[in-house]
Amino acid sequence: MSWKRFTAFFCLFLSMAGVPAWGRQSHATIIYDDRASEVRSVNEEAGRLCITTDDLKRATGFELKPQGICRDELCFPVSKSRLQEFVHESAGKIWFNLVAFANLVQQPIARDESLSIWYFGLRADQRQVLSSLKAPDFTLPDMSGKIHSLSDFRGKKVLLVTWASW
Amino acid sequence: MAQDTNGVKDAGPWITAAHPTYTALIDEKHLVSKLYNMVNVPTGAWIDEHGKIVRPNEVAFVDDRFKNFSGLDSAPYLDALADWVEKGDKSIYVMSEERLRERLTVNNSDIALAAAEFGLGEHLYKSGHLTEAIPHFKEAQRLNPKSWNYKRQAYALSDAKRDYGTTFMDEVEKAGGSKVYYSPPDLRPEVTQKDKKP
After folding, report:
1. Which of A29, A74, A157, B177 could connect to A117 by a Cys-Cys bridge, CB 3.0–4.6 Å?
2. Residue A22: its pLDDT value, please?
């Protein structure tokens, strides 16, 4: 099923399910994978953070697909019976509840209510890498801004040492 | 990996002075500590040619500049490291999978939430909201009390006595003093694996 057909099917599903249009729109900052994005949001006062599916893709890389909530090869399946926990239609847009998704993928959330900033931490799948004994990969700059990844050193022994100026 | 929220501004002069012949990276968001569950510096992990951890997090002094503070001599750790470089997985310091799994810290929900609170604190600090950042740094410290990183980094970003009612040295004294502040690396030879025998 194509994305357009899935969306059309989903809007029809929502209207048949009688899902109500929700609250007032405002702005929020989402920090996802340590990257900050400004988004339009609704329903923050209810402990939900609903953003448009366009903002979902822009801020998190995830999108709604027939097989679930996906980013590249990573997909979290969602049954039809649970879809309305995550999405609703309002003002001609489909809104996605990022807090419900965080609960699904066991992702911690830290929030500053006064500034409407939401920080999404490591999902359970990201935290479980260590148990495989595989060294988690990362990409960081050196002082000149040149980017290095741990995986660049595959084939060599690596002594990984953290330090700090403090 | 410099675990410094202020990045090059704070870590840069140290790297420049060290003239490193190795790769020295800047980790403003403490990503490596988060991914590997590291709670203090210096912390080291050994990773083999296949990307597998063969020794997990442990205190990793590579010289003796802090010996007076910590009481730890770097020589045993450096000797162990040299043994691994020479012998690879035949080194007696390469841990068995069983021992590795015992030593790896489980990233439970409190630890994960602490990292999120700390990340939010860092974002607030860097966007000019230190006052708003402090409660989140405190929450990270409460949720993961083993993390000295969360204390030490937060203290360094403000007036620790004013904002946290303590200082790094106060906390070290509470922990029993500088000579027990760091646990020495456990360098007992790994003798349980048959494949370690020649």
Report:
1. A29
2. 52
Q: What is the DSSP string of chain B?
A: -B--TTTHHHHHHHHHHH--SS--BB-TT-HHHHHHT--SSSEEEEE-TTSBEEEEEEE--SSSTTHHHH---SHHHHHHHHHHHHHGGGSTTSPPHHHHHHHSPP--HHHHHHHHHHHHHHHHHHTT-HHHHHHHHHHHHHH-TT-HHHHHHHHHTS-HHHHHS--HHHHHHHTT-HHHHSPPP------S-GGG--
Residues of chain B with pLDDT under 70: 191-198
Q: How far apart are CA A120 and CA A37, in angstroms?
A: 12
- Rounded to 5 degrees, φ, ψ at B196 are -80, -15
pLDDT value, residue A129: 79
Cβ B107 vs Cβ A127: under 8 Å: yes
So what's the pLDDT on residue A26?
86
Residue A15 is predicted with a pLDDT of 45
The single-letter code of the amino acid at A149 is: S
Q: Where are the domains of chain B?
A: 109-180
The pair of structure tokens assigned to B103 is 């030593």
User: Å from A4 to nearest chain B CA?
Assistant: 35
Residues 54-83 of B with CB under 8 A from A: 60, 62, 81
Rounded distance between C-alpha atoms, residue A125 and residue A128, angstroms: 5
- In this prediction, residue A41 carries a pLDDT of 78
With CA atoms as reference, the chain A residue closest to B128 would be A115
How many residues are given for chain B?
198
pLDDT lower than 70: segments of chain A? 1-25, 43-45
CATH annotation of B109-180: 1.25.40
Predicted pLDDT of residue A20: 43
Looking at residue A19, its pLDDT comes to 44
pLDDT at A93: 86
What is the sign of the dihedral through the CA atoms of A69, A17, A99 and A129?
negative
In B, which residues are within 8 Å of A154 by CB distance? 49-51
Contact criterion met (CB < 8 Å) for B123 and A143: no
Domain ranges for chain A = 3-125
